[in-house]
Structure formats: structure tokens, C-alpha cells
Amino acid sequence: MPDPVVQDPAELAGAPDAFQRLWTPHRMVYIHGEGKPKGEADCPFCTSPRKDDADGLVVARGEHAYVVMNLFPYSPGHVLVCPYRHVADYTDLTVEETREVAELTQQAMRVIRRVSNPAGFNLGMNQGAVAGAGIAAHLHQHIVPRWGGDMNFLPVIAQTRALPQLLGDARQQLADAWHA
């Protein structure tokens, strides 16, 4: 991976502005969708619940949806709520799926609060690749615990996230606390 290049605005053509540019050409792989699942057979949100909980990183299971650790977390305890059915658009969920995604989201927030006491949460669904969905073909709700000062410069300049907890350990803590 090439090193990021920071460019002074005075070096650019046209009228300079107040912004420096951090060029990150390695992101083009993500933008072009290389390595993305092609369908249900290789969709991680379809294959994960077919595994045992520890191997699939599943925290909790419902009838229509389940909670799974994010394989590429923004912060410790970052989970996803996914319907079992391979569906892309929120408006295509059934009433039962919509209800259970909402209930599992609420329960995940309660459990994460008990386990790690975050100061807040980011909740969200990115609908479509252009909106930032890493896997646009299978709907998933992000639940990202947040603490004051939890993000730093590492993701921007070093393509690195500092995560103090292993996924398996976080999954076990959340799974153990789920029904407590």
C-alpha cells in the first residue's frame, strides 16, 4: 500500500483554499468494490448465522434477525443487527423483521451500556453503496458505542484503528450479558 501524500494547497492549480489534501489511493479498492460478496452464497450476513455463535461472531439470535460483531469495528463493541433474510432495502423488510431489528437494536444498546458504559452511540443504516454501505446487498443496522476522545488521527494518516479488545472477547462479554 502506498504511503499517504499530504499536499499543500498552495501547490494546487487555481485559487488556494484553507484545506490540505490527504491523498489515499488505497481507498479505490473499497470504492470499486473489490472483494465484495457477489450474492447470498458468499454474503457474510447470510453465512455468519449458519455457523456456531463463536465462529460466526453472533452475539444473540432472534426469530427474524440477529446481532453480530462487526468484523471491521469503528470502536470496541461495534455490533450489527441483520435480518436473516437477504434483503437490501429497509422498505422491503416485513413488519416482523422491522420490529425485531428495532427490538434487537434497543437490547444491544442496553447490553453494551452494562458491559462497557459508553458515553453515547452512533446508530445507522447505509442504504446503497453510494451511501457508504460496505455490503449493500444485505441490510444491516450499525450500533457503535462511543466514548469522549475515542477517535484519533491513526485511521486518517496510518490506515490503522486502535482497538483495545479482541472481537472474540467482546462477543463473549456481550453474549454473556445478553440475558442477564
Automatic annotation (TrEMBL):
Pfam families: HIT (PF01230). Substrate binds at residues 70, 142. Residues 44-153 form the HIT domain. A motif (Histidine triad motif) lies at residues 138-142. Keywords: Nucleotide-binding. GO terms for molecular function: catalytic activity; nucleotide binding. The keyword Ribosomal protein does not apply. The active site is at residue 140. SUPFAM superfamilies: HIT-like. PANTHER family: AP-4-A PHOSPHORYLASE, HIT FAMILY HYDROLASE. This is HIT domain-containing protein. It comes from Tessaracoccus antarcticus. The lineage of its organism: Bacteria, Bacillati, Actinomycetota, Actinomycetes, Propionibacteriales.
